[in-house]
Amino acid sequence: MALTMEDVRKVALLARLRLDDEELQRMQQQLSSILDYMQVLQEVDVADVPPTAQVTDVVNVMRPDEVRPSLPLEDVLANAPAHEGGYFKVKPVFE
Amino acid sequence: MEYEAVIGLEVHAQVLTDSKMFCGCSADYANAAPNTHVCPVCLGLPGSLPVMNQRAIEMIAMAGLALNCSINHDTFFDRKNYFYVDLPSSYQRSQYDHPISTAGWLDIETSTGTRRIGVTRAHMEEDTGKLTHGGDGSLVDYNRSGVPLMEVVSEPDIRSSEEAKLYCAKMRQLLVWIGVNSGNLDEGAMRFDVNVSVRPRGTTAFGTKIEIKNLNSIRSVERALIYEIERQTKVLASGQTLQQETRGWDEDKGITEPQRSKELAHDYRYFPEPDLPPLAISEDWTTARRAELPELPDARRQRFEREYALSAQDAALLTSERSVAEYFEQAVTAGQGQPAKAIANWITGELFRLLNDSGETIGVVAARLQPAFIGELLGLIKGGTINGPTAKLVFEESFRTGSNPTSIVDAKGWRQISDTSAVRQFAEQAVDANPKVVNDYRAGKTQAIKFLVGQVMKASKGQANPQLAEQALHEVLDA
């Protein structure tokens, strides 16, 4: 199943990847061949198999509504490239 | 040609838990210094694992039941993927095609009667962080990140901005009533997205849908819709067509504007959240949630009309908030047999006025002005101990100090003067002091006696029994 160049650009944009023309072409080929490979699975009859998102058979894992200590602010901001007054600081975002 | 609007609403409502949806951080984001209620889970740090808050799920199910939805046996979370700085994990845990509750409704009372608005679904998700846009950068606070949120999606059953307003107000009333939401819209406890299109009246096909996102007050919902319906109607009436788009509401200018299209904004690539095992909800569990619900506002309003013979308007006022309804019924129970209608009048009249002035809630005030005081006050009026105007003063004093009406009347010396000879003295003074009015009266202007009654009340500092005063004046004048 061949992906169009448009498909590849869209996927790259959604993943926030900047690809040059040569990379886009390589990705088009590679992603297409991955999809081709996945075609194999299409041959399996899954008419009676419910969609499976989990394989552990565990259900209803919950915790009581109790407040527990949060992280100290210095740990919260330890890896932040920039912060100001306890806030994370990022490049200006205009809405 | 006449056009009609077709409106669907999405209501996002925070769920009133102590801790967040998937971690133990405090959900009280509004009263904390930035980034002090965060941990690896709600910061989306690698290796952290979310665990569902049981109470949040119970409360969202209760809200679903209150909205007449079915609770689904199999339900789970999905990841909604998008990149934005308010979302540290780059996906929002939400629900896509297996929401916890589906297919309900909410009734609204319009000027032309009850309208039933379909509720497509009510699902669970998590709130995002909060951005402050500044000069050389944006500041991010993740205290709100991971606060439990529910989203209620309506059917496109709403036909006017007025109905949309009523729907939002009813949703707020209901969610606050059952204790699921704080109702503090100023703090962002509820936010609204609207979908609106217009079509020639009488047709059934949908027009081109416009979405207006992130309205944070019911007033904004109403104003944005009034503007947008008129705009769309003009475009169509002039023979032009509309483009499906997302528009933003500019509160200051009072207009909607096209939003710079976030390219592919709707390509969220939902998939089941692998970090959260699914829920298998039993019939018993759902029954327990239903049992947890209090009597709902509509049922209580109808019961008030029936049981206490109240007008529809009084019943609606007394069930505007659950705490008011509770207060009213406590006042009736403790009311020494005083009529419910009279108790209702004091609550919707004087009490609402005083609450409005002081800005307090009835829950706070009930500790001072105890529900039993209303029946006591009515008893004092009925027994002739105080008159109507004095009763208002007593009520206000009770409201402020928490003293009971009888002790206030005694302490202030406000007992009505029902001693006929004392009242007669005031009447004689009034007649002597107002010869012109007395002449008017004798000349046939019988209404002039009302002025003299006023003079008696004034001279007695409001304490004379007004009926006795009028009687005494008649005796003096007609003697």
- Please bin the fraction of helical residues of chain A: 25-40%
Q: What is the topology, as strand order, of the major beta sheet of chain B?
A: 3-7-8-11-1-12-13-14-15
Q: What is the general shape of chain B?
A: elongated
Helical stretch tally of chain A: 3
Distance between the termini of chain B: 76 Å
How big a fraction of the residues of chain B is strand? Answer: 15-25%
Note the run of SSEs of chain A as H and E.
Answer: HHEHEE
User: Would you report the number of β strands of chain B?
Assistant: 17
List low-confidence stretches of chain A. Answer: none
- The average pLDDT score of chain A comes to 88
Structural class of chain A: mainly alpha
Structural class of chain B comes to alpha+beta
> What does the average pLDDT of chain B come to?
89
Specify the CATH class of the domain at 5-42 in chain A: Mainly Alpha
Measured on Cα atoms, how large is the radius of gyration of chain B?
A: 30 Å
Placed side by side, the strands forming the largest sheet of chain A appear as 2-3
What is the helix content of chain B? Answer: 40-55%
> Which two chains form the greatest contact, residue counts included?
A-B, 37 and 52 residues
Radius of gyration of chain A: 23 Å
Name the shape of chain A in a single word.
Answer: flat
CATH topology of the domain at 5-42 in chain A: Histone, subunit A
Question: Can you give a write-up of this model?
Answer:
The complex is a heterodimer of chains A (95) and B (479). Helices cover 38% and strands 8% of the residues of chain A. In chain A, a hairpin with a 2-residue loop joins strand 2 and strand 3. The two termini of chain A are 38 Å apart. The model of chain A has no long low-confidence stretch (mean pLDDT 88). Chain B is built from 16 helices and 17 strands. Chain B is elongated. At the A-B interface, helix 1, strand 1 and strand 3 of A face strand 2, helix 1, strand 9, strand 10 and strand 16 of B.
